[in-house]
Amino acid sequence: MKHGLDTYAYLKSPIHRWEPRCKLVALLALIFAFAFVQQLILLPPMAIVTLVYYSVSRLPVAFLLKRLRYPGFFLAAIAILLPFSVGNTVIWQLGFLALRQEGLVALILVFTRFLCILTIGLILFGTAPFLTSIKAMRSLGLPSVLADMTLLSYRYIEQFGEDLTRMQTAMRLRGFRANKLSQRNLTVLASLAGSLLVRSYEQSQQVYQAMILRGYGYVTQRRRQQFKTHASDWIALMVTCVVALGFVVAEMSLTNA
After folding, report:
1. From 9-13, 158-162, 224-228, the region with the lowest mean pLDDT
2. Which of these, 89, 127, 161, 215, could form a disulfide with 101 (CB 3.0-4.6 Å)?
């Protein structure tokens, strides 16, 4: 896949060499620990831990920035709404606009946690082929049906994007310009969406029939997984879990203090 998470899955780094099951458990523990944090004082250590893991993974900064483009719209909406709509303590006011302390604190908390969790998620799925990550999930107990559905969804999101790009190019070559809001343009765009859905459905049917012909659903013996765990994998797992547990304990201690 040209533009998927697998783009940098074959780099050489300690995170790339980490056994997939240990990496999955460790980084998911870190993600849940980050989601548990509510104290502002824990945000700088959380950002430092995230930066350390990202630098060790050797993933390019451009890879992260590109994946932040669409979530950035969500963050921008929060940045506009929260400081002016949440809380009662006004710290700055201009006319009807009032900047509120509680909203500003909530914005910092949500923004930092969101970036840290998204970055750890990119490290988790960007440092191994997606198929390997799915196999690791399956070996840890994910049902086969869910694993197959996840893999096919990921595969056909890419295919869906390529079909859309090809159809938009064909429309532009025939003189269609979508920069004007008109009834004709809306009709053409609706036809494009309908055609894309019908083609995707027909393609999924063909793929499913091909899978059935190749024996999908009739395999009774589970294939042996090829993962091999070393001592370094266990050490990295324990270190990461200790870090995650440290954030949880610190959060509980600060909350009860």
Report:
1. 224-228
2. 89
Asked if 55 contacts 119 with a C-beta cutoff of 8 angstroms, the reply is no
d(CA 213, CA 251): 54
Residues 195/160, Cβ–Cβ less than 8 Å: no
- Written as six digits, the tokens of 14 are 């300690």
123: pLDDT strictly greater than 60: yes
pTM of the model: 0.77
DSSP 153-210: HHHHHHHHHHHHHHHHHHHHHTT---SS--HHHHHHHHHHHHHHHHHHHHHHHHHHHH
Choose among 150, 140, 126, 124: nearest CA to 21: 140
pLDDT (mean) for 108-121: 91
Kindly list the domain boundaries of the chain, sorted by start residue. 14-136+228-256, 143-214
Query: Rounded CA gap, 249 and 135, in Å?
Result: 32
> Rounded distance, CA 2 to CA 11, Å?
15
Q: pLDDT confidence of 223, banded at 50, 70, 90?
A: low
Buried/exposed 15-31: b ≥16 CB within 10 Å, e otherwise: bbebbbbbbbbbbbbbb
